[in-house]
Design brief:
heterodimer; A: 436 residues; alpha/beta; TIM Barrel; five-stranded antiparallel sheet; five-stranded parallel sheet; 11 helices; 27% helix; 21% strand; globular; B: 315 residues; Rossmann fold; 2 domains; 12 helices
């Protein structure tokens, strides 16, 4: 490829306007009607150009669980899904509760080179919920951590949660809470409902999520800090967050693609592919979550991409691990559940998957408007393709609950800092010598 | 019908067929030589991951009376992290040519998983999975009720029969299986117990729910089925203590004496005498508890015969 740059022609932006986007080096060098034919021309007729997707909730499993995912394989899956930035959760081994681990994860992300890997730090040492982790040092490290979470576990101790919220104010951090009262969910296996009673699986009641969110928004108001609620899954949680926002409390919330499309009915098969935490809920919850995305109560969509080895899913339900992969299918599920239903437009789509998550994480080099001078983090999305999901994945794991499901919309090209990470829907082989 | 996983999977026709087969097996069991050659040369495995004496013996006797070869595999606890996985155990038995797996497991859905996974071609019979299902117990109870209430044996189903199940519905696979099967057979099924153990969702399973035992008993039932109360429910705050449970929910001698003399008493065993049931009730002429055990063998013979002799020869 010639070095002078590339122009992507006939693209549609999220606001519906048609234009051409030129990329030179890492940056967008031009957006407008003219086509400089000295550049490499990539015709993008029929494609929508969106700011590169930013995932606030990813499990890359490295260090410690490389048999299910590595930073490289997870980064490739992310690029395939249109992401240019992911936030790996802290529940690795060792736990990302100090600057050494977050800097290692950050550096491995740079070496892989497919996406910006922006680590999340643990809130408490070893995710134990007792003593605060090195929050300030992780923030001051090369990884510049702003998002802290014990995800997988809830910071259930009210005093520890209050202190954490208060402490991170100094550097404009945010606590991303996995809202789950542990005492109300001992050995919980699925949504607490008439179906869990019928199936004989211990229920995970909605109130175990809602009670923690209610407490946390009040603590956040009390200390004047910033709270982000991970993977909201119930109608009641939506109502509490809506109330908190109306009070002016600084809370943001995410929903996962799977909670927008799958319901607890799938558990009747006892197929552990559907075992996830928080659990799949009811159709009524799904409807409420979609509505909450549309009306702004829920701010972003985040994948909670949770790879697990086949051994951890090819077993009885009670022994199986919680979680499902989702980086590669996230955009298509959002398109299917939110755009095709008329609930949101592409401007909102871009906000949910790029602009807003970047802003919550205080990243200025991601989620940028597609204009001259911005980093060339761009997804070219084909909204028209319809296909049946197969089990082929860039992820090292195959716990994909959507195999066999019909979805619409696919990522055609992904550009990360001006470089094709995905071209014509194929993940590109990139060297790690270019410094990314 | 390849597997028997849940009483809820059985149609009325299938249920009646299994009950009728079980009646024929009762005739076999009343002979001096209690043996049929039906499963001669076939091998079945009792795969028990949870303690059980009566169910395992009952299946073993049933299989042997049909001339099957029976092997027993018992393992306490199994997980990916601790020792051999369920998958590896099943693969091992498959490699040995086992044709039927009779599975008792502490996890709900374990039998479903074995039947659906590509681990084995064997027929799977659920002998109790977690707090989910125990279909052969439900068939046993249905057969026992059918034989004990006058005027039922000709019609076969249980329409019009009123059954009350009392106790820890939340954790009982016996209750779930019985609710499913009794309703398929047309019976009216009521549940009674403290609201922590008979939760609001229980109303979606049964016809009605009581949270007061005397109110329930006063409503009049043909059958009162008492469930075993586990001591661990007290320590996890489902109920305050054993004395309170016994006082409020036990079928005491006094409560039993107020019942109509035609009311039948059942219990899947093992009983906690003095806790959920008094000896006066358990040992009375209205009690079907011993008949339940006897019928268990006949029902399991019927199930094995149906799944292994009839279904496989129909292929």
């Amino acid at each position: 490829m010639k070095q002078q740059g590339t122009i992507f022609t006939n693209v549609q932006l999220s606001d519906g306007s048609k234009t051409n986007i030129a990329v030179t080096g890492e940056l967008i060098s031009y957006v407008g009607d003219e086509i400089d034919s000295s550049l490499n021309v990539v015709d993008c007729s029929g494609l929508i150009a969106l700011s590169g997707f930013v995932d606030l909730h990813t499990h890359l499993r490295e260090p410690g669980f490389e048999q299910s995912e590595t930073i490289l394989t997870g980064s490739r899956a992310a690029a395939k899904g249109g992401f240019t930035c992911v936030h790996p959760m802290a529940n690795t081994n060792p736990v990302a509760d100090n600057s050494a681990v977050v800097e290692q994860v950050y550096a491995l992300g740079q070496t892989a080179g497919y996406v910006q890997v922006q680590p999340i730090g643990a809130v408490t040492v070893n995710l134990e919920g007792k003593n605060l982790a090195d929050l300030g040092k992780m923030n001051a490290s090369a990884a510049k951590v702003t998002l802290f979470s014990d995800d997988g576990k809830c910071v259930s101790d009210s005093l520890v949660m209050r202190r954490a919220l208060e402490y991170i104010k100094a550097f404009d951090g945010v606590i991303a809470q996995h809202a789950q009262d542990p005492l109300l969910t001992v050995n919980a296996q699925m949504n607490g409902s008439a179906l869990s009673l019928k199936l004989g699986l211990t229920g995970w009641p909605a109130v175990a999520e809602e009670a923690i969110i209610a407490r946390d928004v009040l603590l956040t108001e009390e200390v004047g800090s910033r709270l982000h609620v991970c993977h909201v899954s119930t109608k009641g949680s939506v109502e509490i967050i809506r109330w908190a926002k109306s009070r002016g409390i600084n809370v943001t919330a995410e929903v996962t693609p799977h909670h927008l499309i799958l319901t607890e009915d799938l558990v009747s098969s006892y197929n552990p592919i559907y075992k996830v935490n928080p659990p799949l809920r009811t159709q009524e919850d799904v409807v409420a979550l979609r509505q909450a995305v549309a009306d702004g109560t829920i701010d972003i969509v985040a994948t909670d991409h949770a790879p697990h080895t086949a051994d951890n899913k090819d077993c009885e339900w009670g022994e199986a691990a919680f979680g499902m992969i989702g980086l590669e299918t996230a955009a298509a599920i959002m398109k299917t559940t939110l755009i095709d239903t008329g609930l949101i437009d592409w401007v909102k789509f871009e906000e949910l998957l790029s602009t807003k998550p970047a802003s919550i994480s205080r990243l200025t080099n991601q989620g940028q408007k597609l204009e001259q001078g911005s980093f060339a983090n761009i997804v070219f999305f084909d909204p028209k393709t319809e296909y049946v999901v197969d089990s082929i994945s860039e992820s090292k794991s195959s716990n994909n609950p959507y195999v066999g499901m019909k979805l619409s919309g696919s990522v055609v090209h992904t550009l990360y800092r001006g470089m094709f990470t995905v071209r014509d829907s194929e993940v590109q082989e990139i060297g790690n010598s270019d410094g990314h | 019908m390849k597997h028997l996983l849940s009483a809820g999977d059985l149609s009325l026709t299938e249920t009646l067929e299994l009950l009728n087969l079980s009646l024929e097996m009762q005739d076999v069991n009343s002979r001096d030589v209690k043996k049929l050659p039906a499963l001669n040369g076939r091998t079945v495995a009792n795969l028990f991951f949870e303690d059980s004496t009566r169910t395992r013996f009952s299946f073993e006797i049933a299989a042997k009376r049909l001339s099957a070869d029976v092997v027993n595999f018992t393992a306490k606890g199994s997980s990916v992290s601790k020792g051999e996985s369920l998958k590896d155990t099943v693969l091992t038995l498959e490699a040995m040519g086992i044709e039927a797996l009779i599975v008792r497991h502490h996890h709900s859905g374990a039998a479903n998983t074995i039947a659906q996974a590509d681990w084995s071609r064997a027929t799977v019979i659920n002998a109790g999975d977690g707090t989910h299902q125990h279909p052969t117990q439900a068939l046993t109870d249905a057969l026992t009720i059918r034989q004990s209430i006058k005027g039922i044996r000709d019609t076969g189903d249980l329409s019009g029969v009123r059954v009350l199940i009392v106790g820890d519905i939340l954790h009982s696979r016996v209750a779930r299986s019985n609710i499913d099967l009794l309703k398929t057979l047309g019976a009216y099924v009521a549940l009674a117990g403290p609201s922590t153990l008979v939760t609001s969702a229980a109303l979606e399973l049964a016809d009605t729910v009581y949270h007061n035992l005397d109110d329930a008993l006063n409503a009049g039932f043909d059958v009162v089925m008492m469930l075993r109360m586990q001591m661990e429910r007290m320590s996890s705050s489902f109920v305050p203590n054993a004395i309170e449970y016994s006082t409020l929910w036990g079928l005491s001698a006094e409560r039993f004496s107020r019942l109509d003399s035609s009311t039948l008493i059942m219990h899947p065993g093992p009983m906690n005498r003095g806790l959920e049931i008094s000896s006066e009730a358990a040992d009375s002429s209205q009690s079907l508890i011993v008949a339940q055990v006897a019928n268990g063998v006949a029902v399991r013979m019927g199930v094995l015969y149906k799944l292994l002799a009839q279904e496989s020869s129909a292929k």
